[in-house]
Predict the 3D structure of the following.
Amino acid sequence: MFFAQVLTLFPEFFDSPLSCSIPKRAIADGAVSVDCIQIRDFATGKHQNVDDAPYGGGPGMLMKVEPVVAAIAEARKRQPNTHVVMLTPTGNKFTQAKALEYIEKDSVTLLCGRYEGFDERIVDYVDEELSLGDYVLSGGEPAAMCVLDAMIRLLPDVLGSPESAVLDSFTEDGMLDWPHYTRPEVFDGKAVPKVLLSGDHAKIQAWREEQARLRSLKRKASK
Ligand code: ADE
């Protein structure tokens, strides 16, 4: 079993996506467990504050170092080999290769922040800083959910067909997947490419590989 942990102020954020479709089945089948740890439980003081104003001034509030570091310590106590990943727009870019790398570990812990970010000293207590992309989310939770989903579907026996994960976009050489079609044969005057109806598997495979190559080139050119 793969052990995922999430450090968050909003554990309820994960209830709905983890109770649908592939993640739901993966959890029910025991391929993965996802445990949320509430960062606020590690806050001390009367108001259990988890955020504070930045030194030097500026807008917004920052996640405080003490409760976050205490929550990370709890995550490491529960899963001593866990790889702790901080979600932040300034981190390394998340990729399919990263998802494949993470599922080789015993456990991954995803640290989600709110407000304007984290006290920089927290970085010394995590193993990696990770960004979903070059945009700013209102918190790490949506990013953590994407990372969880990308990992879960790659775990052994989670997808219906073992070929599905292998044939995904990006799995081989960063190549994009080819286009797919299902019924009807014609929609709004747009017909399914003839070759797919030919029954000639070698020809179909050659067409698919060419389409994947063209798509990948086109995407690269538009970057
Ligand atoms: N938190 C806020 N924005 C984020 C992003 N783009 N990736 C990861 N974590 C984030």
About this structure: Residues 175-222 form a domain with the Trp Operon Repressor; Chain A fold (CATH 1.10.1270.20). The longest strand covers residues 83-93. The helical segments are 15-18, 21-28, 65-78, 96-103, 141-152, 162-166, 201-221.
